[in-house]
Amino acid sequence: MVGAGPAGSAVPAGFLAALREVLPAGMVSTDAADLDDVANDRSHHVGAVPAAVVRPLTTDNVSATMRVCSQFGVAVVARGSGTGLEGASNGLAGAVTLDLRGMSRIVDVHPWDFDVVVQPGVMKSALNERLALDGLFFPAGPGYDASVGGMLSTRASGTNAVRYGTMRENVMALTVVLADGRVIHTGSRTRKSAAGYDLTHLFVGAEGTLGIVTEATLRVHGIPAHAAAMICGFPSLASATGVVYEALRLEVPISRVELLDEPSMVAINRFTGSSFAEVPTLIFEVTGSATAVADERAVLRGLASAAGAVGLSSSSEPTSIERIWNARHQALPATAALVSGATTWSTDVCVPISRLAECIELTQADTQASGLLAPIVGHVGDGNFHLAIVLVPGDAATLAVAHEVNDRLVARALAMGGTVSGEHGIGLGKMHALELEHGDSLGVMAAIKLALDPQRLLNPGRMLGAGLFEG
Q1: Taking CA atoms, which of 40, 288, 372, 446 is between 20 and 30 Å from 339?
Q2: Phi, psi dihedral angles at 238 (to 5 degrees)
Q3: Cα dihedral value 42, 19, 200, 169, nearest 10
């Protein structure tokens, strides 16, 4: 996707020269290919090419960039791997994009303290490859590989959240560059603290609007000795989610549990050549000692069988576990492949677990009545689910219907006591939804934004609408 807007859109006279003066040679680029490379993330939102790209390597580089941008009043968009789904890191005309991919150093690993210190450009896959040397892993984040900074920015979740929590629960401390270039350190490597405001978690989920994270201390966990996975179909969404509820009530230590609806299973079978039952489907994983895994697996099989499960398959063999989880990981590309040349709009809401089946069933009925092709997958253990709305480029009518369906989905989730985003964030696409969810609280958010970024230079026009700052 090519960004809209002219390359190198106007910036104040002398700005680029001042920026190049404080940064190492070659760190600032206005090359057209470099600008277009950072114009768009993975979302359906169309971005713009920025005025310049800065590729920092250190906190000092980011601080120097922000001091110059603050002096000249130039906006800044921080960007990691560009895998976001709500346009939060899309390029902005006349702005600087901070491409943090080069800040990919694993600074320190503390195996005995179960924490690691990393720069924001570190990819989850690379982090876990290094941690595996010490028998550790980092669980949070999406199945699709993403950078630590991006996962921090959106308060990402992923399939492991039911056991290990989201990014919020796994971030201990941060180094942050503020809008004027000041560098602050939040939190600590201790397991608890009662010292002052919790600034660390103010920045987690702020989508680059309050400061730029240049270093993060993350909580890590031991790699389980044994694992088992199970996949099975059910006669209805309600029966599937009922099994999850019973497993949670019995405190079965589920590591992962995912729900896929009938259209998702159809797409997966076509895409991968598999032959899973094309009905509402659950994928479970349990981990621990060999004895514990065997016991937990037996409990889940019993619960599933009692609920009328079909096509039940489980295994503790690594290759088979990988095959089972591959079905889930292929869901999005499989959905896009249903229509030649199509892309997908991946939505994101979260509701109380007790309302999940109802919310999904109503959403399915809405998409079918609207004529949309939109398979559903969900992190059923925490009530989070996604529509993958299939879009053909240039089909404005379908896109308009998709917006209407998404608006009704947001309203439905809120009416059930849910939230407009469980893990994708707000970005460009859900600012109106954030207003519906938080109402008067947005004024407090705007006050925090202005206190830390009075010129509104950091990722402007994302998360909080401009109207909040008027008057």
Answers
A1: 40
A2: -65, -40
A3: 30
